[in-house]
Design brief:
single chain, alpha+beta, Archaeosine Trna-guanine Transglycosylase, Chain: A, domain 4, 5-stranded mixed sheet, 4 helices, 31% strand
């Protein structure tokens, strides 16, 4: 399958430069939100930056966690976060995303391993 997701410019650049190799996503509560449990190995994600740039990535592993703390403990911060390598700051940053704190409490969180296709 092939999917298209919007992504902020900082994360887009980090993925494109292969500094970010794991995309963190949570299925938001309510109708009309994408269910990230559908993602499978070898699916394709087309990321679109807020500036309109696009980047095609292939999915490797998709790992589900109960909490962002569990995800960062298991996956680390080096390739999961584009804004910081600090564990506590990473938790704050992810929870500050619109709807993420509630979504993670309700549905958990996904670590999606990605590789850009050039």
């Amino acid at each position: 399958m092939e999917y298209c997701f919007d992504i902020n410019n900082r994360a887009f650049k980090a993925i494109n430069e292969r500094r970010k190799r794991v995309e963190i996503r949570a299925t938001k509560v309510g109708k009309n939100h994408f269910d990230y449990s559908k993602l499978k190995e070898n699916d394709i994600i087309n990321f679109k930056s807020f500036e309109g740039e696009t980047l095609k990535c292939i999915i490797g592993d998709v790992n589900w966690y109960n909490s962002i703390e569990e995800l960062l403990i298991m996956e680390g911060t080096r390739y999961t976060l584009s804004s910081t390598n600090d564990f506590s700051e990473g938790i704050k940053s992810i929870n500050s995303l619109n709807g993420y704190e509630e979504a993670i409490k309700t549905n958990g969180v996904y670590a999606i391993h990605i590789t850009p296709i050039k």
